[in-house]
Write a structure and sequence with these properties.
This protein is an alpha/beta fold and 518 residues long. The protein has helices spanning 11-15, 72-90, 102-109, 120-131, 153-164, 172-192, 207-228, 247-256, 273-283, 305-310, 352-355, 370-377, 385-388, 409-418, 420-442, 467-479, 507-515; strands at residues 200-204, 238-242, 259-263, 287-293, 318-322, 347-350, 363-367, 447-449, 457-462, 487-490, 493-499. It is built from 17 helices and eleven strands. A seven-stranded mixed beta sheet has the order 1-7-6-5-4-2-3, with helices on both faces. A four-stranded antiparallel beta sheet has the order 8-9-11-10. Bound molecules: pyridoxal-5'-phosphate (PLP). Pyridoxal-5'-phosphate binds at residues 147, 206-208, 211, 246, 248, 293, 297, 322, 324-325, 351, 363.
């Protein structure tokens, strides 16, 4: 067993990791009053502000409360962490960084968990010098893979407050103020998308859980309708979606043990009503839902939602819109028309952690009629009676979760701070940039645009390159800390892909990547 304060970690490896360029030295507190009190933070009796008891020396505290009591040690920890967070949030030159292998990480950072603890200074130094630099900086302007993140400074900073206030976001009883603020955001989104004022929902972890929760509600609704009509359940329930729908739809279907019928989106990548009609006719009452994609992940292509929604005139089905990545573009004037028909959706999702500028992780899930979702999702247990027997709005009743972080609050704060117009403009910038990148690609004889971009994803091929060459090129860009652009593929052909959500990404950033393929 280790003695107090010692560790099995080789100190030299993590206290200063050469070449990573980060400062690991934290000044020792000058005196025990270092921190909040020195800065004159008020200690109002009964307030939720800081209340600092400075007379209790750590060694007289029962060790059981050492982690929770307000002592010079915990004040110092909070100061160190906030100072680190402040530097990181306001840093303009955080490198892209890159992953280390498990063996390297074991060598540099293994053994950090022991009986005695490392102490915050060493643990934080380990994070700053080894662990953080082995995580790719997802909000870097030249992180162009998958779907990047681009949280506003306000939303990232406020995320700290969501933790600091220990808000419970699952019920009105416990978190009414937070739930109210989240619902303000959901109501604004619902209005933007043309849903009725009675629409509502909840922020969940991400698009995968959002899609799953919506489809579970849709199946529950279909089951109830059948039961009411005294009809038997079909042998297999069916979800209809595009061949280009996100993998999370298939994942939801697997969790639910239902079948997925994929309808070919065709050359353009757009799923149209005509093709969906044929599937609806074939599968009839077994259909739980039709999923239309509001911005496919691979191409940023929006399905023809209007023609799919129009099928509701002749067929009864639940229309779910997976807009995890792309639905944010409905806020921009230039792309709003692409989403015509969304006002007929029964449910939809859009992920603030993708293109609504919040930190991971957050998905706004909206239902046209939240009461239907409530029937599907409310958990019943004796200890929850105080919640479930009330008429209050409890966010946990609308998705596959119980305990929940108020993960809509960073978006609320950022929206309340900057206003909606800033969002419209920041989204439009990436759409313009994608079109500018497409023009640059067309102008280069060694590149071919695979499809014209609609939103902010641009997919292109390098003439003559093998998959191996794409990989080597991509690895080189990351090794040189220039950019993060992983190869993708379409119809069995390897390609390169830009996904742009960061308003700080410039055309020069993209051109330099294109030039590197010459
Ligand atoms: C269209 C679409 N749907 C669903 C998801 C899944 O979202 P998440 O990764 O937040 O679970 C994604 C992720 O990129 C997506 O682009």
């Amino acid at each position: 067993m280790q003695g107090v304060g010692s560790s099995s970690l080789p100190r030299s490896t993590y206290e200063r990791h050469p070449g990573l360029g980060r400062d690991s030295s934290y000044p020792e507190p000058a005196d025990p009053s270092h921190g909040a009190a020195r800065r004159g933070v008020a200690c109002r009796p009964g307030s939720k502000g800081p209340s600092v008891s400075r007379n209790t020396a750590p060694d007289t505290l029962a060790s059981a409360v050492r982690m929770h009591a307000i002592t010079p040690e915990t004040i110092d920890i909070v100061d160190m962490v906030l100072e680190y967070a402040r530097r990181r949030i306001l840093s303009d030159d955080t490198p892209l960084d890159k992953p280390l292998s498990p063996a390297e990480l074991r060598r540099l950072a293994g053994g950090s968990i022991n009986d005695a603890g490392l102490g915050a200074r060493r643990a934080l130094a380990l994070f700053e010098n080894v662990l953080a630099p082995s995580c790719i900086t997802t909000e870097h302007p030249r992180y162009l893979s998958f779907i990047p993140s681009a949280p506003s400074k306000a939303s990232t900073a406020f995320d700290l407050i969501v933790s600091a206030t220990a808000v419970y976001g699952g019920s009105w009883l416990e978190g009414s103020g937070a739930v109210f603020a989240e619902n303000e955001v959901l109501a604004w989104l619902a209005a933007e998308f043309g849903l009725p004022v009675t629409a509502g929902g909840v922020f969940v972890q991400g698009g995968t859980i959002g899609n799953l929760s919506a489809l579970v509600a849709a199946r529950d609704h279909a089951t109830r309708l059948r039961r009411a009509a005294e009809l038997p359940r079909p042998d297999r329930w069916v979800i209809i979606c595009s061949s280009e729908a996100h993998s999370s739809v298939a994942s939801a279907a697997a969790v639910m043990d239902v079948d997925v019928v994929t309808v070919a989106a065709g050359e353009s990548g757009v799923l149209r009503g005509e093709a969906v009609r044929a599937a609806l006719v074939e599968h009839g009452d077994a259909v739980i839902a039709v999923v239309a994609t509001g911005g496919s992940t691979n191409f940023g292509i929006v399905d023809d939602i209007a023609s799919i929604a129009a099928l509701k005139d002749d067929h009864e089905f639940w229309l779910h819109i997976d807009g995890a990545y792309g639905l944010a573009a409905a806020l921009a004037d230039i792309t709003r028309p692409l989403f015509a028909g969304i006002e007929r959706a029964d449910s939809l999702i859009v992920d603030p952690h993708k293109w609504l500028f919040t930190p991971f992780d957050s998905c706004a899930l909206l239902y046209r009629d939240p009461a239907i979702a409530r029937l599907a999702h409310t958990q019943h247990a004796e200890y929850l009676d105080a919640l479930t027997e009330s008429s209050q709005f409890n966010p946990s009743d609308y998705s596959v979760q119980l305990t929940r972080r108020a993960r809509g609050l960073p978006l609320w704060f950022s929206l309340a701070t900057f206003g909606v117009q800033s969002y419209r403009e920041a989204i439009a910038v990436s759409i313009d940039l994608a079109h500018a990148a497409a023009r640059e690609i067309r102008a280069r004889d060694y590149l071919t645009l695979v499809r014209d971009p609609q939103l902010s994803v641009v997919v292109f091929e390098r003439t003559g390159w093998s998959p191996q060459q794409y990989s080597e090129w991509s690895n080189r860009l990351l090794d040189e800390q220039h950019s993060f652009v992983v190869p993708s593929s379409h119809a069995g052909r390897t390609n390169a892909r830009f996904a742009i959500v960061n308003p700080r990404t410039t055309i020069d950033d993209l051109v330099s990547v294109l030039d590197s393929m010459a």
